[in-house]
Amino acid sequence: MSISTESQEFAVESNERMPVVVVGAGAMGRSWIRMLASSPHARLVGLVDLDLPLAERAVLEEAASGVIVGTSLEEVVANSGAEAVINVTVPQAHRIVNETALLIGLPVLCEKPIAETLPAAIQQVALADVTGGLIMVSQSRRYFNHLSALRQAVSKLGALGTVTTDFFHADHEPGFREQMLHPLLVDMSIHHFDALRHITGHEPLSVQCSAWNPSWSWYASNASATAVFELTDGVRYVYAGSRCSPGLQTSWNGSWHVYGEHGAAHWDGDHHVEVDAEADITVDVPSDYENIAGSLAAFVESVRNNTTPENEIRDNIASLAMVEAAALSAASGERVVIADLLAASYAEAIATERRDDVRERLAAWGSVEAGLSSGHWGTAALARA
Ligand SMILES: NC(=O)c1ccc[n+]([C@@H]2O[C@H](COP(=O)([O-])OP(=O)(O)OC[C@H]3O[C@@H](n4cnc5c(N)ncnc54)[C@H](O)[C@@H]3O)[C@@H](O)[C@H]2O)c1
């Protein structure tokens, strides 16, 4: 096996930087503000939070000058000349902020998870349809250069048999995570499940999951889980994770093994990719923007070129479905079939949607598969499943 590393200069003129508003000045909002300060792709022109002093403090402490701060997205957009919105609010506020952005006519890059439930996520797909706007989900852990190398290796292993991810961490993050239901599956595993789809191109069909809270856990709900997913073409995905395991901790990206027809590949989640295959396999480690900077680069490129980014909301539904199916399986002890879950979620989306135009659009799809594989920004991820 050989690995080559590209070195590449990124040069984008500052006047090409897209003016953006960040909504949400919490912990992750600060990470976005810091990243934007040196981004060649976008620049911060506005910051919105319901907590105005918090937003003002964030701008001051992060030395972000010339930034319009406020509690109203409409007003901050009007006063700042923003051309796009980055939604870094808590999951329960994602819809209202995305809706406001789309109704103003701006594309939005929204933090994961796109919604707290699948029906709420499906409603946002129809909202994007109705407005003709773009909602891209920032699944930032797709953007790691060694993940790209692993993906290349996996594409050369022939048919796949088994993929495993181990994620063992000890996170102390006071706030909503330590109080929420399923802090591992909902807040963290979505990254790994999404990366699985990205690496293999296989889509989830069903899952059997067990989730529990170890006796010493500092989380209110299940911080540990194991799950076995059946994927398209008979591939199995075996997941084991914990957010309260102090010792032999893995990377935030997890530790990956992929076993195929012609060999196997491993990624430690950081900077080590290893391939053991019948033939010599060459992979390149690119030097692209990583993590949220990579996500932003993909978003700006798609807005500028009017193309559909790979993490457009439609595509992300399958990643969220893996999370929700795993949580349901853990609660019932039963295997959960993803197509059944999606059909039930679609019916609930229609039954609970508050906007007439969005409800009518949902009903007009006829089926969830039709809705997720069509539309202006549509991709065909679930149609493949
Ligand atoms: N991609 C990653 O690796 C990663 C890492 C951490 C967090 N996140 C995601 O980022 C998001 C924010 O997480 P956080 O840790 O910063 O949360 P946080 O609680 O620290 O901050 C959220 C902020 O949103 C504000 N807010 C809530 N509702 C609002 C509304 N309607 N309008 C304007 N502001 C509103 C709150 O006042 C708060 O300041 C979550 O979706 C989380 O899952 C992603």
CATH structural fold name of the largest domain: Rossmann fold
Oligomer: single chain
CATH architecture of the largest domain: 3-Layer(aba) Sandwich
C-alpha end-to-end distance: 32 Å
CATH superfamily of the largest domain: NAD(P)-binding Rossmann-like Domain
The profile of the biggest β sheet is:
8 strands, mixed
Unreliable residue runs = 6-14, 376-385
Query: How many β-strand stretches?
Result: 16
Query: Which ligands accompany this protein?
Result: nicotinamide-adenine-dinucleotide
- Numbering strands along the chain, what is their spatial order in the largest sheet? 14-13-12-8-11-10-9-16
Quick overview:
With 385 residues, the chain is of the alpha/beta class. The protein has 14 helices and 16 strands. The chain folds into two domains: 10-140 and 289-312 and 339-385, Rossmann fold (3-Layer(aba) Sandwich), CATH 3.40.50; 144-285, Dihydrodipicolinate Reductase, domain 2 (2-Layer Sandwich).
Structure overview:
The chain has 385 residues and is of the alpha/beta class. It has two domains: 202 residues, NAD(P)-binding Rossmann-like Domain (Rossmann fold, 3-Layer(aba) Sandwich); 142 residues, Dihydrodipicolinate Reductase, domain 2 (2-Layer Sandwich), CATH 3.30.360.10. It is 40% helix and 23% strand. It has 14 helices and 16 strands. The strands form three sheets. It has an eight-stranded mixed β-sheet with strand order 14-13-12-8-11-10-9-16. The protein has a six-stranded parallel β-sheet with strand order 4-3-2-5-6-7, sandwiched between helices. Strand 10 and strand 11 form a beta hairpin. Helix 4 packs parallel to helix 5. The longest helix has 20 residues. It binds nicotinamide-adenine-dinucleotide (NAD). Nicotinamide-adenine-dinucleotide binds next to helix 1 and helix 4. Keywords: NAD. It holds the Pfam family GFO_IDH_MocA_C3. It comes from Microterricola gilva.
